[in-house]
Design goal:
Blueprint: H1 2-10, E1 22-27, H2 38-61, E2 66-71, H3 80-89, H4 95-100, E3 108-112, H5 123-130, E4 134-140, H6 145-155, E5 159-161, E6 167-168, H7 172-185, H8 198-211
Parallel strand pairs: 1-2, 1-4, 2-3, 4-5, 4-6
């Protein structure tokens, strides 16, 4: 009986990895950008999206799970599919983001009501199932939802990589200031995604787990 329960708890669904020390989070990129400042955010968000697409492809090759952590935009009756459909088909400013970052069938997703991906969500539980010890945070906005999520991850003793080219904010100074703060205070690695050695990250964290 105990064996069955353990199998159920560690086998989440489909072909997605059941455990990994490193997990890629894509935060708020399925986004209509229909809010004050969204017009300023569109260009840097598109640039970040292109970098995230390439990083996601590399992560999947390393069997690193991908988790979409997305705001519900106050649509309390919506699920993630409805949020994605809205951004793709309702003629909104953020359509490009959803087009290039449409979730795959083996991706995980978490809807959040506030800034942090951890607040009132299932993210903590999911990361426990996945046995994550290191998060790669990407998305928007660097000075808001990325920052709040990073703070909560740090409080949970999770290591952080926040590639500088995979996050964006309304103004470039907001992005650079947020990255500097997270590097200084949260020990975040802000190495650009093109220089991030995913194989090394996975190996280092796997070795650390063995020592523990």
């Amino acid at each position: 009986m105990l064996k069955k329960m353990e199998t159920k708890e560690t086998d989440l669904h489909g072909n997605a990895p059941d455990s990994s020390p490193v997990v890629l989070l894509i935060i708020d990129m399925i986004n209509d950008l229909e809010f004050p400042g969204g017009d300023e955010l569109e260009t840097p968000a598109r640039k970040a999206a292109d970098a995230i697409v390439a990083l996601k492809r590399r992560a999947k090759a390393q069997k690193i799970p991908v988790v979409y952590v997305n705001d519900n935009f106050g649509r309390w009756r919506s699920d993630f599919t409805e949020v994605t459909d809205h951004v793709l088909h309702d003629g909104v400013r953020g359509r490009y983001l959803a087009e290039v970052l449409t979730p795959d069938s083996d991706d995980y997703f978490v809807l959040k009501p506030k800034h942090s991906g951890f607040y009132a969500t299932t993210l903590d539980t999911l990361l426990t199932y996945l046995k994550a010890s290191h998060l790669i945070l990407t998305g928007i906005s660097a000075d808001s939802c990325i920052l709040f999520t990073a703070n909560d991850a740090y409080m949970r003793d999770l290591k952080l990589s926040i590639p500088a080219d995979c996050v964006a904010a309304i103004k470039p100074t907001y992005t650079s200031e947020a990255l500097a703060y997270m590097k200084r205070t949260l020990n975040a690695d802000t190495t650009p995604s093109t220089e991030l050695n995913l194989d090394e990250l996975v190996q280092v964290d796997q070795d650390a787990e063995k020592v523990c």
